[in-house]
Design a protein that fits this description.
The protein is α/β, with parallel strands linked by helices. The chain is built from 6 helices and 10 strands. A 3-stranded mixed sheet has the order 2-1-6, with helices on one face. A 3-stranded mixed sheet has the order 4-3-10, with helices on one face. Strand 8 and strand 9 form a beta hairpin. The radius of gyration is 29 Å and the shape is elongated.
Length: 206
């Protein structure tokens, strides 16, 4: 009863139940993730169901995974890459671009996959990771130049001629964006298409 004599209103249901269930699931997930992390630390192996650039490395030791990915990268850098630019298409390869596989970074990320609580909450499953490559900056700039379509910028000017005075408007320069080209090639895809945006980043910033 309240002070006014009216009975207290009973709240229907038990709203705390969904919260309790969610907390319990989170605790289980955290515990499972911790056990998996400890198991990975003890065994020194990559968690199961991890795929890097199409290569299954789950369950392998880091040394085994490194050897497997190194062999895969040696083949990958020899595969042809067709880069289509504004004027021409250039056939190249990772080897010609000085590609160096970032295997240690891939293994570092692979070792963490499946250990986060959200990886367990979503039911697990295969984890697919890319294998990225560092590319030679000088060779990427040379490739960008070969693709064509570059237009030098023109400043505005006042021109005096027989017909009188004329104002020549400025024109923005256009060239292949070297940074965008490098990013597009970072995983050595089979084909890449690039455009020539106006006012790309200056070469010394790429």
């Amino acid at each position: 009863m309240t002070a006014t004599g009216y009975p207290l209103e009973r709240r229907s249901g038990r709203p705390w139940k969904p919260i309790a269930v969610a907390v319990a699931l989170l605790v289980v997930a955290l515990g499972s993730a911790r056990l998996a992390l400890e198991a990975a630390d003890v065994s020194g192996r990559i968690p199961p169901d991890v795929v890097v650039d199409g290569i299954e490395i789950g369950g392998l030791s880091r040394d085994e995974a490194r050897r497997v990915l190194s062999a895969h990268a040696q083949e990958a850098v020899r595969r042809p890459i067709t880069v289509t630019g504004p004027q021409v298409a250039v056939r190249t390869s990772g080897a010609r671009l000085g590609a160096r596989a970032r295997i240690d970074r891939a293994l570092e990320e692979a070792g963490l996959r499946g250990l986060a609580p959200w990886d367990w909450l979503d039911g697990g499953g295969e984890r697919v990771l890319p294998l990225e490559y560092d590319l030679d900056a000088r060779r990427i700039r040379a490739l960008a130049a070969r693709l064509g379509g570059a237009v030098a910028p023109i400043d505005a000017a006042v021109e005096v001629g027989p017909a009188g005075v004329a104002v020549r408007p400025a024109r923005a320069g256009r060239a292949v964006d070297v940074s965008a080209l490098r990013s597009a090639l970072r995983t050595l895809p089979a084909t890449v298409r690039v455009a020539t945006p106006a006012n790309p980043s200056p070469p010394d910033q790429q």
